[in-house]
Amino acid sequence: MTAGRRLVRVVAAGALAVAAGSCSSTYGLPESATEQGREIADVWGTFMVAAFVVAGIVYALIVWSLLRYRRRRDDPPDAFGRQFHANVPIEVVYTAIPILIVIGLFVVSADVDRFVTGTDGEPDVVLEATAFSWGWRFEYPDLGVVIVSEPSSREDPGPEIAMPLGETTRVVLRSNDVVHAFWVPAFNFKRDAVPGRATEFDLTPVEEGVYRGVCAEFCGLNHAFMTFRVRTASPEAFDVWISERAEAAEAVP
Q1: What is the model's pLDDT at position 127?
Q2: pTM for the structure as a whole
Q3: pLDDT in tens, the chain (253 residues)
Q4: What is the residue-wise DSSP string for 21-74?
Q5: 170 and 101, same domain (yes or no)
Q6: What is the C-alpha separation between 119 and 132, in angstroms, rounded?
Q7: Rounded to a whole number, what is the largest CA-CA distance in the chain?
Q8: How far apart are CA 241 and CA 164, in angstroms?
Q9: Which 8-state DSSP code applies to residue 152?
Q10: Half-sphere exposure of 243 (CA within 13 A, CB side)
């Protein structure tokens, strides 16, 4: 086997490995359970496609150059091939195209960032989330429900909160002491809880289920136990969930 054919096979094997690793439509990200997370996944996919296209062109040109301009057996030992010092059209192309790609990716990212981080209109549900070392206090101020973490431990999965499917939940995030973070991996969304600052963001669930949430900023000894669960359910099931918590709170003397 010649060196050229061996190089082609190596490159082809590498391309197949990359393609196999990107078969998922989300390119490695989990399927998001919220509208915001799916927008983030779409941006990630756009960047991945752009990267594959650019990489494919670059690697193809490298292979072509290696094969086209390699030394032949009948070439003189001191042959260097035709030399040139500049090619203005090519230089303009390989400067302009990356600039256009970066501008396009920036516009896409900025548009999704406005959607994901912005709050628009009146939410259907307001949830106040207060982080502390090492637990959570969740309150639905308009619905009269308060949920507080039990003492942190390895066995406790943390408090459960709920969000209605297809409706917007406005989360007002705070911290009572140090920097914490509200992170639900299945939502593709994380936001820091900073002392002295209230941060607001919207989440709109689109998949029913129960998802694990964690604090994603190291905050001390029991940081690993600072977990919670998010239940996403139909608006009717959400109303039942709220009623059960409200009745349980009233039953406590």
Answers
A1: 95
A2: 0.73
A3: 555 556 556 555 555 555 555 555 666 777 788 988 888 888 888 899 999 999 999 999 889 888 877 777 777 777 666 666 778 888 898 899 999 999 999 999 999 988 888 887 889 999 999 999 889 999 999 888 998 888 666 767 789 999 999 999 999 999 999 999 999 999 988 999 999 999 999 999 999 999 999 999 998 888 888 999 999 999 999 999 999 888 776 554 5
A4: HT-STTTTSPPPSBHHHHHHHHHHHHHHHHHHHHHHHHHHHHHHHHHHSSPPTT
A5: no
A6: 25
A7: 98
A8: 10
A9: P
A10: 6
Q: What is the pLDDT of residues 128-142, one digit of tens each?
A: 999 998 899 999 998
User: What is the domain range of residue 101?
Assistant: 3-117
Pair 147, 245: CB distance under 8 Å: yes
The DSSP bridge pattern shows strands 227-233 and 209-214 to be antiparallel
Give dist(CA 122, CA 78) in Å, integer. Answer: 76
CATH number, domain with residue 175: 2.60.40.420
Do residue 100 and residue 141 come from a single domain?
no
Looking at 117, 142, 162, the residue that finishes a domain is: 117
- Side by side, which strands form the sheet with 209-214? 160-164, 227-233, 209-214, 180-184, 189-193
Mark whether 145 and 246 lie in a shared domain: yes
Q: Are residues 144 and 225 in the same domain?
A: yes
Please check whether residues 136 and 83 belong to one and the same domain.
no
| Structure tokens that stand for 13 in this block | 């094997």
What angle is formed at CA 184 by the lines to CA 49 and CA 149, rounded to 5 degrees?
Answer: 175
